[in-house]
Specification:
Layout: H1 40-52, H2 56-79, H3 87-100, H4 115-120, H5 123-126, H6 131-152, H7 157-168, H8 171-178, H9 183-198, H10 202-215, H11 223-229, H12 245-268
Helix pairs in contact: 2-6, 2-8, 6-7, 6-8, 6-9, 9-10, 10-12
């Protein structure tokens, strides 16, 4: 016998002979991640979508545009023969000066507005002549916000924002408010009437309607449509104007606000 130990060679294990170790031979191939491509157009489009779905950045930007034009108006009036500021703005400012002196605002020739408008422009006398323009521009922005709120009652947010931008960036409206026209006051009151009516706030609608009619007469044309829309129309025409609780609240609230403001203006002057 030989002292040398016989070494047995172990045959290599094949895949078929090792059924429990297939994972050693069937390793899945590693997936290589591809770097995302930088797409500037996609980023710009996403940014615009976010910007168009939010109104507050537009309110700030529209306000800055109006402030810039107010500053330009001050410079323009000092260095040009044709003024940038509206003539009626000087009329209302003079009426506010009469009020600050204890006189009637109607002592100013061609002043034909409610005396409370002259009260709104008292900061022109006490602070700076452009304070009234700033107030009208703020009300102009409030009108754009009310448009957004009204449309959001029936449409998605992005639709409401896009429609309100037509007001905020309208060059005609920007020029009107920055030149010192008080039309933004009426715009806010009329939009407040519509918004409160759509929300079912009858008393607030009436107070806004009475205040708007006191400032200018033309919003009185909204009285009949508001009155009729508070109730469902009957087939019989004689029941269209039938007074109900909501209709009485509208009539009383609008009448009270109009009478109180008018009587206060008459009592003061």
């Amino acid at each position: 016998m030989s002292n040398q130990k016989e070494t047995t060679k172990v045959p290599p294990v094949s895949k078929s002979q090792s059924p429990g170790h297939e994972w050693l031979y069937n390793k899945p191939a590693l997936k290589t991640r591809t770097q995302p491509r930088f797409d500037p157009a996609l980023i710009v489009r996403m940014g615009l979508e976010v910007l168009m779905s939010r109104q507050y950045p537009h309110l700030i930007l529209a306000g800055l545009v109006r402030i810039g034009l107010i500053i330009y108006g001050v410079y323009h009036d000092k260095h040009n023969a044709v003024p940038y500021t509206d003539v009626d703005y000087h009329v209302v400012t003079d009426a506010a000066r009469y009020i600050s002196e204890g006189k009637s605002p109607f002592a100013r020739h061609t002043y034909r507005y409610t005396p409370f408008l002259a009260y709104l422009l008292l900061p022109n006398i006490n602070c700076h002549p452009a304070c009234g323009k700033v107030l009208f521009c703020i009300l102009d922005l409030v009108a754009g916000y009310l448009i957004n709120c009204i449309i959001r009652l029936k449409q998605p947010v992005h639709v409401a924002v896009r429609h309100s931008l037509l007001w905020l960036y309208n060059p005609l409206l920007i020029a009107i408010s920055t030149r010192g026209s008080a039309e933004s006051v009426m715009a806010c009151l009329v939009l407040l009437i519509i918004y409160s009516h759509l929300q079912g706030r009858v008393v607030l609608t009436g107070f806004a309607l009475g205040t708007a009619v006191h400032f200018k007469l033309y919003p009185i044309i909204y009285s009949l449509p508001l009155y009729l829309s508070l109730e469902q129309q009957s087939v019989h025409s004689w029941e269209w104007f039938r007074p109900t609780r909501k209709r009485l609240h509208l009539v009383m609230s609008s009448g009270i606000s109009f009478i109180l403001l008018t009587y206060a203006a008459y009592f003061l002057y």
